[in-house]
Amino acid sequence: MDLKQLNAFIAIADSRSFSAAATKTGLSQPSLSRLLKQLETDMGVELVDRYHRPLHLTEAGTFFYDKISAILTEIDTVTSMTQRLSTPSSMLNIGFVPSVLYGLLPEIIAMLKQSSPDIDVNLKDISSYQQIEALKSGEIDIGFGRFPHQDPWIQQILLRHERYVVALPKAHPLAHVKEQRLIDLANNRLILYHQTHLPIATSLRSTSAKLDSNTKSRRTSAEQSTLSAPITEPLLHLFAQYGISPFMTTTVSDLQVALGLVAAGEGITLVPASLKTVRTDQISYQRLVHENVTSPIYLHTLKDFVHPSISDLLSATYQVYEQRGITYRQQKFVSQP
Predict the structure, then answer these.
(1) Which pairs count as long-range contacts for 82-85, CB under 8 Å and 24+ apart, including other chains?
(2) Is 124 within 8 Å of 140 (Cβ atoms)?
(3) Does the pLDDT at position 155 exceed 90?
(4) Which alpha helices (DSSP H) does 87-141 contain, by range?
(5) 56, 85, 114: which is the final residue of a domain?
(6) Is the Cβ–Cβ distance between 143 and 131 less than 8 Å?
(7) Same domain, residue pair 234 and 113
(8) N or C: fewer beta carbons within 10 Å in the chain?
(9) Range of 107's domain?
(10) In a 3-state reduction of DSSP, which class is residue 278?
């Protein structure tokens, strides 16, 4: 058994076709067939049922695919990390989620370049979830994200918590209310935009004592049955902490689309306070009274390889926080000098 055989098997299993796998790998169909046959002979197990179209994995093949895929991913990660350790790049590749770009990230990068002018910086717009794989592959060296991650290859630190504000259409009856409560927003359509969900679910308590009878009567039986379901969507999680379930929700692809719908009067949403300068001619941003309704900002990087410029980035971050009077607890990554 060797890597060529394993990669051939993975390509065939993913494509469910020898011709498609050949196109993917650049190998001929006879070569792929030979590598698969050698692997099956070495193992003494049939992995692929060749008599179906598309090809099917046998029960043993499905088990082997699930286990060997994870191992090959780890091999690729270790290979990439080893190459970076032997020839570290002077470029610092930084991943970020769009909401961070509207906040202090531009000031942090400017501070970094001012204090360390020899550092080359490359910024990449990439979701919190995608940043984990990007760190492993070497696409980025560090990521600014909004969600905690539990991955054996990754370490992260919490930079700070940013308060949420409610975004309402300018014509909304609550648009000029300076202190908003989640319970007062429950009868609105809530626009959801997060592509990453929380790793830990929260159960939603009944809200029958808090919502008016008209709202309760308008709920469908399906909506009623989900009141006790696990809540992992971040905005719904915030409402769930107070035992509240929004009357209606709409899910969109990203934050900018959500704010576009708010501007069009199609609903409301919650965004980190750094976004309150977007579309201000159409949207009213108001403070929430709940102090724990916040969006965290995390920095994450690899456990076993910390780019040498990350310490300078972290120092620049804390300098900006001090200038802005932001409370923080200074931290370092484990293998950071």
Answers:
(1) 83/138, 84/138, 84/305, 85/305
(2) yes
(3) yes
(4) 98-101, 105-115, 128-137
(5) 85
(6) yes
(7) no
(8) C
(9) 91-160+295-324
(10) coil
266 found inside a domain: yes
Per-residue pLDDT at 203:
43
- Pair 255, 149 in one domain: no
Residue 2 is which amino acid? D
pLDDT tens column, 108-146 = 999 999 999 999 999 999 988 899 989 988 899 999 999
Q: How far apart are CA 302 and CA 82, in angstroms?
A: 12
**Residues in the chain, how many?**
337
Domain shared by 150 and 108, yes or no: yes
Q: Tell me how far apart the alpha carbons of residues 25 and 7 are, in angstroms, rounded to a whole number.
A: 9
The answer to whether residues 69 and 102 belong to one domain is: no
Residue with tokens 């990554």: 333
Residue 274, Cα to own-chain centre: how many angstroms?
A: 19
**Average pLDDT, integer, range 154-181:** 96
Is residue 65 within 8 A of residue 59, CB to CB? The reply is no
Contacts of 210 (CB under 8 A, 6+ apart): 183, 186, 243, 244
26 dihedral zone (left: phi>0; alpha: psi -120 to 50; beta)? left
Tokens of 70: 């994870």
For tokens 């090959």, the residue is: 72
End-to-end CA distance of the chain: 41
Using CA atoms, how far apart are residues 163 and 295, in angstroms rounded to an integer? 6
189 and 288 share a domain? yes
Q: What pLDDT sits at residue 223?
A: 45
**What was the pLDDT predicted at 246?**
94
Using the structure block, give the residue that is written with the tokens 């994200």: 145
CA atoms within 13 A on the CB side of 112: 21
Q: Are residues 32 and 130 in the same domain?
A: no
Same domain (yes/no): 311, 196: no
Neighbours of 133 (CB within 10 A): 15
Q: What integer pLDDT is reported at residue 216 of this predicted model?
A: 44
Cα(242)–Cα(219) distance, integer angstroms: 19
Q: Which residues are paired to 250 by β-bridges?
A: 191
Residues 130 and 7 in one domain: no
Query: 54 preceded by cis ω (within 30°)?
Result: yes
